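Morning run. Coffee first, then this:
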Amino acid sequence: MNELLLVVRIAGQRVALPAARIESVVELDTLIPVPRAAAHVAGLSALRSRVLTVICCRRSLGLAAPDLSDGVLEAAVTEVDGHHYALIVDGVEDVLEAAGDPTPVRAAMGEGWERVSSGMVESEEGALLLMDVEGLIAGPDAARQAA
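And here it is:
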């Protein structure tokens, strides 16, 4: 596997997103609240005449949310089923090449992390948790509704 990985930080953890799924990395400075949206939907923003649904990755994992009203937010932009999303992360670090296919995670990580992980993937900087983009977008309520 020679897949490229976008290395980001979420809740202090270095994790990977499949770079092929990411259109761009941006800084958002404006969030428009969405009344009655799921808790992990931070709001809406605009990018190059497109409306983005902004997803807070921490909230999607069921973790405490950062202060989203303070300054510029780093986000990875993706498209799923014709809709554009911005995934808010704590920081963007690098793009690395995967050294192999993802392998199963062999440790307990917590419900949110387990729900959105696609396995562990080796890179030149060590093992990284590979995140499922659709799982982050769906949020914690999707798992409860499916049960």
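The first strand starts at residue 4 and ends at 10. Good start to the day.
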